[in-house]
Design goal:
This protein has helices spanning 3-12, 23-28, 47-59, 62-71, 104-123, 143-154, 172-180, 199-213, 230-235, 262-268, 270-289, 296-310, 328-340, 372-377, 398-417, 421-428, 434-443, 462-483, 494-507, 518-529, and strands spanning 30-33, 36-39, 97-98, 101-102, 127-128, 131-132, 135-139, 163-167, 187-192, 223-226, 243-244, 315-321, 358-360, 384-389, 452-457. With 533 residues, the protein is of the alpha/beta class.
């Protein structure tokens, strides 16, 4: 099914797509829902290429798989689980049936419990042993950290609750730096671990417990847990009223719509959190109903497939020209690379095409003075995804926001147009001549013809953030189905964790390094010599 796309790419790969971007293309190569617009006109995808890409969706049964996911079928086949993070935001939708049971009453009950607790913390009905809660420390890792940490920063203009901090790294410098900034007597610690056994999270949780115990009598009274392990949370001293569980059909990197989003709900309030859910739900409904050519998640996925699997571009830069989204690239690294970083298809056979790309990025305009040099003039093509709002939250500085928007649009235009040798010569003809003119001009050539897409929206709000995150979640789903892989397991994280557990007593000097490879044994010896044990 890939050959027709590769043959088409071979025919058009040297074409200057700048010449294609007329008024018709500017309106025909976009997808829009409400006030959110995806522009992919600045790519080398033409009508024939788009038709071939859409054929991929039909050949791989994306629509049927999509419907099965929303219906609660166990599409996570390697673990035998449903994939229903969408149910967590289906707050005014139809029943969702898993194993013959409607899960929505429990979802709504948990959401109501979260809202009640968040209101109690925000209003002072729930206090620390030194008074009203001033700080919330969320301890998690991976999906239980990256999602809420990104969302709290993205919705900073709506943050009117206690200060929120996030600890994830087992490096003690991470937890120590956060705890130093807090008062134990007025701090709420949220421990986010479904099993309450995640080694990094529980190590940091015990550190926070010891820190709090130096100042307050009852440490458990200022802890909450996002976990299904009621016995372990009780043993930790956390009252069941402050324990919020979620089902195994919610994967970690898809979990901030439910209890993992408690820190966000405390920060912005239950009403704004529900608006966040409504935004995601609106994108879910768009994904379920819009024709493929008008479907934002489908078209964003197909652009990614064209660039990665067809054109062979190995990386993807996510470049938000919205400083509130500074953590979005890191969030998407996990969402996309943990989901689609697979080497075998559903049946266990090796993939015959590359899986997901390397995802990376930083906000503009910072990146322009850092890695954009490589994007514009490096030897590898890096497709770029720009995100930009029409307005910021600083109305008195709107002229500065206009400069930000101009920079965003200019970068996508520059990537497309480039600068040829004649234009480069004209730039320096008044300073150089002869061979030196030629040499200097060549340094100023931009090959251009480098693709980008732009996602534009009116303003960063809870609803818009919900739409954006849901958009990218469904993009991952579509790419995974087309590639024939399971986007919802993550066996790739297991081996390193197993080896770390085995290595810890060796590092501590309690066991010999005998049997380890020479490099690992020598590194252990060096680090022990310098104080690790």
């Amino acid at each position: 099914m890939w050959q027709a796309l590769k043959d088409h790419h071979a025919k058009v790969k040297d074409r200057r797509f700048e010449t294609m971007v007329d008024a018709d293309r500017a309106t025909g190569f976009v997808a829009q829902t409400g006030d959110m617009r995806l522009d992919y006109a600045k790519t080398n995808i033409d009508a024939d290429g788009r038709a071939l890409l859409i054929d991929l969706l039909e050949q791989t049964g994306v629509a049927a798989k999509r419907d099965a996911m929303f219906a609660g079928a166990a599409i996570n086949e390697t673990e035998g689980r449903a994939v229903l993070h969408t149910a967590l935001r289906n707050i005014d939708g139809d029943p969702v049936i898993v194993d013959g049971q409607d899960v929505m009453p429990e979802v709504r009950d948990t959401l109501d419990r979260m809202a009640g607790f968040a209101d109690d913390v925000r209003t002072g009905r729930f206090t620390g042993q030194g008074g009203q809660i001033t700080d919330v420390v969320n301890i998690g890792i991976g999906g239980s950290d990256l999602g809420p940490a990104m969302a709290v920063q993205s919705l900073a203009p709506y943050h009117d609750g206690p200060r929120c901090h996030f600890v994830s790294n087992v490096d003690p410098a991470d937890v120590a730096a956060v705890l130093r900034s807090c008062d134990p007597a007025t701090t709420l610690v949220i421990v986010a671990s479904k099993t309450f056994t995640t080694i990094e999270t529980m190590t940091n949780a015990r550190t926070a417990q010891a820190w709090m115990g130096q100042s307050v009598a009852d440490t458990g009274a200022q802890f909450a847990a996002l976990s299904t392990a009621a016995d372990k949370t009780a043993a930790f001293g956390i009252d069941p009223s402050r324990v919020f569980g979620f089902e195994d059909w919610v994967g970690g990197r898809y979990s901030m719509w439910g209890p993992i989003g408690l820190s966000l709900m405390i920060a912005i309030g239950p009403d704004a959190f529900r608006a966040f859910l409504h935004g995601a739900q609106s994108m879910d409904r768009h994904f379920q109903s819009a024709p493929w050519q008008e479907n934002l998640p489908a078209m964003l996925a197909l652009v990614g497939i064209w660039h990665n699997q067809v054109c062979g571009y190995a990386t993807r830069a996510v470049l938000p020209y919205d400083n509130l989204l500074a953590r979005l690239p890191a969030y998407l690294q996990q969402l996309e690379m943990e989901s689609n970083g697979k080497g075998v298809s559903m049946d266990g056979a090796d993939l015959d095409v590359h899986s997901g790309p390397v995802v990376w990025g930083e906000p503009g305009t910072n990146g322009q003075h850092a890695f954009y040099q490589l994007i514009h003039q490096g030897t590898r093509v890096i497709p770029c995804e720009f995100l930009v709002a029409a307005r910021g939250h600083e109305d008195d500085l709107h002229h500065q926001h206009q400069l930000l928007v101009a920079n965003c649009l200019a970068q996508s235009e520059a990537l497309m147009r480039g600068r040829d040798l004649d234009e480069a010569r004209s730039k320096v003809a008044d300073k150089f001549s002869g061979d030196e003119l030629e040499r200097q001009a060549r340094h100023r050539v931009f090959k251009g013809n480098r693709p980008s897409v732009t996602l534009a929206y009116p303003k960063m709000t809870p609803e818009v953030l919900g739409q954006i995150v849901s958009l990218y979640e469904h993009r991952v789903f579509v790419e995974g189905v087309v590639l024939g892989i399971n986007s919802y397991d993550q066996w790739g994280v297991e081996l390193g964790k197993e080896l770390a557990t085995a290595l810890q007593p060796v590092v501590e000097g309690k066991q010999s390094a005998a049997g380890k490879d020479g490099s690992t044994a020598a590194l252990v010896e060096f680090l022990q010599m310098h104080g690790v044990s």
